[in-house]
Every structure is written in structure tokens, then in C-alpha cells.
Amino acid sequence: MSDLQKQIEKRRTFAIISHPDAGKTTLTEKFLLYGGAIQLAGTVKGKKNSKHAVSDWMEIEKQRGISVTSSVMQFNYDGYCINILDTPGHQDFSEDTYRTLMAADSAVMVIDASKGVENQTRKLFKVCVMRNIPIFTFINKMDREAQNPFDLMEEIEQELGIQTYPVNWPIGCGKEFKGVYDRHKKEIVSFIANNGQREVEAVKADINDPNLSALIGEDHRQTLVDDIELLDGASYEFDMDKVRCGKLSPVFFGSALTNFGVKPFLENFLQMTPPPLPREADTGVIDPFSENFSAFVFKIQANMNKAHRDRIAFMRICSGRFDKNMEVYHVQGNKKMKLSQPQQLMAQDREIIDEAFAGDIIGVFDPGIFSIGDTISVPGKKFCYSGIPTFAPEHFCRVRQKDTLKRKQFVKGVTQIAQEGAIQIFQEPSSGMEEVIVGVVGTLQFEVLEYRLNNEYNVEIVMEHLPFQYIRWIENEEIDPKALNLTSDTKVVQDFRGKYLLLFTNSWNINWALERNKDLVLAEFSRG
Ligand code: G4P
């Protein structure tokens, strides 16, 4: 095997998704501890002690205690090179999560054992299904009162439409949590709470061991024997092919906080999850092990560090090896270039890198040339990776600056934040850039916009909520939007490319517009 192949083969790039508070940050932190990337629990997160989460770097995240934007973490464990993509748990950022999932080869879904499948899990899960990537489930907080594990399995199967295969099975829960039974190794790992650092002590015992009652109690022993019999008879069989296409989710029970079940999960997961996957491009499928470097931009973030005032484009390397001195080709810009200051990120910490491989995520300095979805390849190789769809905004505000002298900063701010994909901006046909109409997928984005304009661009704004709920692009260019027969509460606006679109307050008005304007063709997405 060549060095390139070895490097790519050992890469595992995955995203962690969960409903807020299910324990995603805690689990991530334990992974990092195992990988030696951090030495102390609480470095990633510690709302109660003053240390801030490594992955929660934005001010607004710190203030609200939520993970707003996604970050990337890389560490090595057991011969693997692991890239974890953290995703925002808040539903208002599902678009950001979607883009991040585009960069992942698999997903870990963390579920709170007492709550089961929650709203946000459902939404994020749908996004994973759209990509057909393997999904691994970690049922967390078994040290607390939990739902019946069979009910949890059924809920996942029913609600999310995926088959489940429990790799281990819990013995009791809460105060009565005794550990898990590993169905592959056919042994019990008994629970010893360990709030401390790396290793949890595991006592291993066979299910037929006569001393088992002494270890977990006769009631639990009996329940376990019955449960396993039922599982072996009735549950889905383990099928790696189904796992790889996201149809069967291997399930693990544990408790991230007490460090129980995390190591076996990580080890099993690393074995089952695939190395970098081939990707669809307009010229066909691109092999990750190809000698030729290629990548696509899945995220753009300005002003990550106020002191730097910079803009970073995050790229997922899809094939080959990246070298910091190499000449690359930006397909959409039709330009050869060198990528400036390529770096890997560990939340706030950045490290300039010399090389990276398929599966890795790199951030490069972006002077304003990249857009989300852009493809980077090597000169002579012209192809585009399949685009990242844009979600239709559902909430709208009219936004203007308080101080008209700050027009320049205002325009720069809203334009840059729109380029990052956090908001979409529209204008009324005859108005200037003094005020814009902002559309977002989730309303928290308005707060982020206000906060960032104030904090990063020194602009105070006034926002006026607008009652629109639906957006449609006008497909036929020959139509004069002013001549359309529309309800009085339908608004004609233009996007940044000058394309016309309509904002509607309800779906009835959309039908009205289509019925009264027979030639009108409306589209839910902009074709770019
Ligand atoms: P999130 O990133 O998915 O939002 O969840 P996070 O890890 O922040 O965990 C949410 C809360 O649940 C935290 O408590 C965390 O300590 C707790 N938790 C995580 N895993 C477990 C577990 O296995 N067992 C138990 N009992 N609790 C768990 P918090 O008090 O809200 O946060 P903090 O102030 O302690 O950080």
C-alpha cells in the first residue's frame, strides 16, 4: 500500500448530531480525551465552571450556552486519524448542519435515554437519510432513569424509519444501572461510575457465569437473559452492507458523563464506519484514493477571530493529497491559485498545515472568492461536485442601519454574512442598499445577524418583522414582475443576482398568483 493509500485508509470523518442537551458535547469531549487531544474533562465544555467549550467559540454561543456554528476537531486514536465535525444542536441552524453533514462520511446520533427521539433528532436525521450515510446511535445517560430499551429501539425504528441493531444491551438504569452486555463479545461490562478521566474499569463476565447474580443481582440477571433471548430471536441481524448505506443503525448504550461505554463505542464505531467515500461529481464518481487532489467548500465563516478580521473557507478534501505549496484550480472561478494559509482547526486553535489527505477538513484564507459548494481540483481537472442545496427561508425581516453614515459597513456586513449562507438577502426593486429584506431558516439567525453586525461591523440595526412565510423564484425571465396580478400582501423582491422573486404570506396566495397569471412559472429554489 502506498503512503497516500495508508493515509487515506486510516481517516474517519464523521458528524455528531443530537437534540440539545442529549450529551453531544460530553461525548465529544470523552473522544478527545481518549485521543489525547485534551488532557482534562471540562475543557470542551463547562458551563458551570468558567472554562468555555473548545467547540463553542462564538460569543453568542458562550452567552447562550448553545453550540451555534459547527467546528472541526482532529485527533488520532488506535491508528486512526479522526475528524469530528461538530454540528449546531439548535434547530435554527439546521441549514448549517446540513452543509456539515455533506462533509461527513457517517454520523453519530446521540439520544437521551430518558427522552428518546426528540424534535431536533428527527430533523437532523432526515438530513442524514438524504445522504444515505451510515448512522450510529449512542443512547446516553443510562446512569439516569431511562425508558425501556425495547421501547427506545421501537421509537427509533418507527419515528426515524431505520432498522436498529443493539451492539450492547443495558442492564438496569439510573441508580440500578449495572452495566451493559456486549452481544458480539458475549460478555458483561459492569458499570463503575467514573467521573474522572480516561479509563473506566470494566469487569467482564459471561452471561452463563454462575457468579452473575452476585455481580448484577438475580432480578437483573433474569431480565438480561430474557432480553437477550428476545433480541437474538426478534431483532434485525447485523448486516454491514445495510449499515454502510444507512439502513441499519448499530446502537450502543452508555453514559458519556461517567465515561461508561464510550471506549467500546469508539472502537466498534471506528471499525464499522467507512474510510473516505467516493463522491459524485458532474463527470462521474471521484475516487478518494486518486492521486489528484480535490475538495469542495462546505462552509464559509468570517471573523472567526476578531483580532484577525478574516474569512475562512472550510473545505472537505475528497481525493488525493493536499500540499501547502501546490497549485490548485478553483473550478467556479476558473482560476489557478495557491491556497493561502491552509490550516486545521481545533475550535479556537489553528495550526498551519503542510499536508492533508482525503477525509480531512482544511480551512483556507478566503479573500472573498469562494462560495459554498465550490470545487477545488488540480489544474487540468475540471469537474464540479454536486451542489449543496439552499433551504428556502421561512422568516423575513426588513433590516436597516440606524446610522445612515454607516452605509458601507452595513452593506459589507450583510453581504458577507449572506455569503456565509447564514442569511439570504433580498431587495425591493427600486430601493437601494440602505435597507434589505433578510430571509432566514430559523429565527435565531436574526439575533446572530444583529449581534454580529454590531460586534464585528460596528453597525446598529433596526429590524421589522414581515409576515411572509413562503418564497418563490420567478422562473420566466420575460415576465414583467410589476405587471403581475397579485394579492396586495404579496411582495416582489430581487435576490443578489438581480433575479425576481415573490414573497407570500400564505400558500393560498401562491395559488392565487398562479391562477391569475397563466404564464407564470414559480420555483421553490433558485437554480443559481
Ligand atoms: P449537548 O452538547 O448535546 O447539548 O449536551 P451536553 O454534552 O452539554 O450535556 C447536557 C447535559 O447533560 C450536561 O449537564 C451534561 O453534564 C449532562 N450529561 C451528559 N451526558 C450525561 C450522562 O451520561 N449522564 C448524566 N447524568 N448526565 C449527562 P448540564 O448540567 O446541563 O451542563 P453542565 O453545566 O454540567 O455543562
Describe this structure in words.
The chain is α+β, with helices and mostly antiparallel strands and 528 residues long. The protein has three domains: 3-171 and 237-272, Rossmann fold; 279-377, P-loop containing nucleotide triphosphate hydrolases (Rossmann fold, 3-Layer(aba) Sandwich), CATH 3.40.50.300; 395-523, 2-Layer Sandwich (Alpha-Beta Plaits), CATH 3.30.70. Helices cover 25% and strands 28% of the residues. It is built from 13 helices and 31 strands. The strands form eight sheets. A seven-stranded mixed β-sheet has the order 2-3-1-4-5-11-6, sandwiched between helices. Strands 18-17-23-14-15-22 form a six-stranded antiparallel β-sheet. Strands 7-8-9-10 form a four-stranded antiparallel β-sheet. A hairpin with a 7-residue loop joins strand 7 (168-171) and strand 8. Residues 41-57 and 64-68 have low confidence and may be disordered. The structure holds guanosine-5',3'-tetraphosphate (G4P). Guanosine-5',3'-tetraphosphate (G4P) is lined by residues 18, 20-26, 45-48, 89, 140-141, 143-144, 255-258.
Give the low-confidence spans: 41-57, 64-68
Mean pLDDT: 84
CATH superfamily of the largest domain: P-loop containing nucleotide triphosphate hydrolases
Q: Could you describe the largest sheet, including whether it forms a barrel?
A: 7 strands, mixed
CATH architecture descriptor name of the largest domain: 3-Layer(aba) Sandwich
Molecules bound to protein:
guanosine-5',3'-tetraphosphate
Strand order of the largest sheet: 2-3-1-4-5-11-6
Structural class: alpha+beta
Structural domain count: 3
Cα(first) to Cα(last) distance is: 42 Å
- CATH fold annotation of the largest domain: Rossmann fold
Strand-residue proportion: 25-35%
